[in-house]
Amino acid sequence: MAKNMFIIKGNLCAERVRLARALQKPPITQEELAQKIQLMGVEDMTKLIISRIEKNQRHVCDAELRVLAKALGVTMEWLVGDADEQDYGQR
Prior knowledge:
Low-confidence stretches: none
Oligomer: single chain
CATH class: Mainly Alpha
Structural class: mainly alpha
Order of helices and strands: HHHHH
Strand content: under 5%
CATH topology: 434 Repressor (Amino-terminal Domain)
Distance between the termini: 44 Å
Number of strands: 0
Shape: globular
């Protein structure tokens, strides 16, 4: 029997990534977010990866969390739910 190497199933930022995309002015698609991140130098971030993150089907490493927060204009704390929703965009 294979042992799961992760203690927590999924990730902490799934809902907030989706919410942050929707709160952009104008809202952005997963494809647009992936392109924005690619322009920041993370070339292997794709729409499929964004989709899997938002569906809680893929873990997010700390470096990815940092780049997601930067691309969305939010703090990493907000992205993982450690800051209240009214703190959106307080970076």
